[in-house]
Specification:
single chain; mainly alpha
Length: about 325
């Protein structure tokens, strides 16, 4: 029962990393779009692509927090009492990002629009960096079982910094592929070429960070490195192949195929982390069974989670379908 709860928890983590990550990456390209005139068209596409769905993706973050808190309370307490600084900064970034995205559409004065836009774009980069650093702190075993670990070295360390950079790079790549596909659907050749170049650039940059990360993990997170190069290696290879395939097919593949490849490239990385870390919740210690709530709680949580997924997944899928078909543009 505890393993099933852990799998369901990681499904939520993967969904948020992929779907929420695409939103954060779009904010990265908003930040780097250029001045008001040069960046007007790319930002307009970002607005059109994000507006109907960007808040919906936070459902997965809430789902993960509830699952972790209820199913594995010792792990939740340990993480929150050790990594509260990056988690607090990530939460602040989510709030600032939402406020900036909402207010820049209704503000009238140019200086206020620029301030709101800058808040949205900058927090779209900061938030995934801090979330990635949290993942790195957990994966490298820097969160003690009893909690109250070092609040600085828990996330300011080589593996956490690598996790933060990879989170920003992967989200930027996924968003660039999504926006390339979105521009192709809208028959906007100029913007398509622009985001195609950005997808290629972000792929090269993220790949370079990932290659450098091999040495970082070998030196700083030995158990994670061993897991990624043994039982999780097929997932790592699938991620690399999907990423390369999406790059080679950027010029000619159907938009839906491009999006599927980008999602697969990002999702398998997260799943690979979970497989490499199994059976521990805190990287190198605290087994899933030892951290689990009583069986009665897990059984009730499993039923509730199943109903939640039956409600949320079709609703989110319908939202994406309506958005992809352009039925929500007027809203």
């Amino acid at each position: 029962m505890s393993t099933l709860a852990a799998v369901v928890l990681f499904v939520g983590v993967t969904a948020y990393a992929v779907l929420g990550g695409a939103d954060y990456g779009a904010g990265f390209w908003d930040l780097t779009a250029g001045g008001a005139r040069r960046g007007a068209e790319p930002r307009h596409l970002v607005d059109q692509a994000l507006a109907p769905v960007w808040e919906a993706n936070h459902v997965w973050l809430i789902f993960c927090l509830v699952m972790l808190w209820t199913a594995f309370p010792p792990a939740f307490a340990a993480i929150m009492t050790t990594l509260y600084i990056p988690l607090g900064l990530a939460a602040l970034g989510i709030v600032v990002r939402g406020s900036g995205f909402a207010f820049r559409k209704v503000l009238v004065r140019t200086d206020q629009q620029r301030a709101a836009g800058a808040a949205f774009a900058a927090s779209s980069v900061i938030t995934p960096f801090f979330l990635g650093s949290v993942a790195g702190g957990i994966a490298s075993g820097r969160v003690p079982t009893g909690g109250h670990g070092d609040p600085i070295t828990g996330w300011v360390n080589p593996t956490s910094l690598l996790g933060g950079l990879l989170a920003v790079g992967v989200t930027a790549f996924v968003a660039a592929v999504f926006l390339t596909a979105e521009a192709r659907l809208r028959s906007d050749d100029g913007i398509e070429r622009r985001f195609r170049r950005r997808a290629q650039g972000s792929a090269i940059g993220t790949g370079a960070v990932a290659l450098a990360g091999i040495a970082v993990l070998h030196a700083d997170a030995g158990r994670l490195f061993t897991g990624l190069t043994t039982r999780a290696l097929p997932l790592v290879l699938i991620s690399a192949l999907c990423g390369l395939a999406s790059l080679f097919l950027l010029h000619r593949a159907a938009p839906r195929l491009l999006q599927a490849l980008a999602v697969s490239a990002a999702g398998t990385v997260v799943v690979g982390w979970g497989v490499a870390q199994y059976p521990y919740l805190l990287g190198t210690h605290l087994r899933i069974g030892a951290a689990a709530a009583p069986d009665a709680t897990l059984a009730a949580l499993t039923v509730v989670a199943a109903f939640a997924l039956l409600l949320v997944v079709p609703a989110v899928a319908l939202l994406f379908v309506l958005q992809q078909r352009g039925h929500l543009d007027s809203a």
